[in-house]
Amino acid sequence: DADVTQTPRNRITKTGKRIMLECSQTKGHDRMYWYRQDPGLGLQLIYYSFDVKDINKGEISDGYSVSRQAQAKFSLSLESAIPNQTALYFCATSPTGRAGEQFFGPGTRLTVL
Amino acid sequence: GNSVTQMEGPVTLSEEAFLTINCTYTATGYPSLFWYVQYPGEGLQLLLKATKADDKGSNKGFEATYRKETTSFHLEKGSVQVSDSAVYFCALSRGGGYQKVTFGTGTKLQVIP
User: Which of A62, B33, B43, B62 could form a disulfide with B73 if both were Cys (CB 3.0 to 4.6 A apart)?
Assistant: First the structure.
């Protein structure tokens, strides 16, 4: 079984719709992250969480929100999707104190029409 | 701020050729350095790491040496296989409370039989 799972794997939606991407992990890690990947731009950090009560904005948080429902679950929401949010989204986890050693989910490909 | 610069791809090699993917970084202090690999349709996976100057990280035939004097962490493999075709990301992590991870933009490697 995968250690970090993401649902859905693919989603097509329309401008203005609310979308939620979900992430679950069985690694037992406290730290979780949401990234966006665009061709030629590498990974950009959207939000990160140290634990259920500690959530922080990353480099590109505008237009996104998150919820850490439990140690194992971290959801990303797009309140009103727009076409330039079309991208590949990754959830990741890391052990405390070893942020560079991240474990990634398989990604969600989101298309906003 | 911190930054990671990788050679642009795609890099196309024949099977059994020698691989070098260049990576240089800018950071204050003493970051930890990482290489991640992303196979088609998957999330990133940690390939190797080095935490201090002159350390050599190695895994699956890949190696990279942390060179502080040249601020580099080049990825090498002596004989590539078709199965090595993927996108490779160089990354760094600073110490401290958050230990933000900075990723390069990725280098696509294609190995042809």
Answer: B33
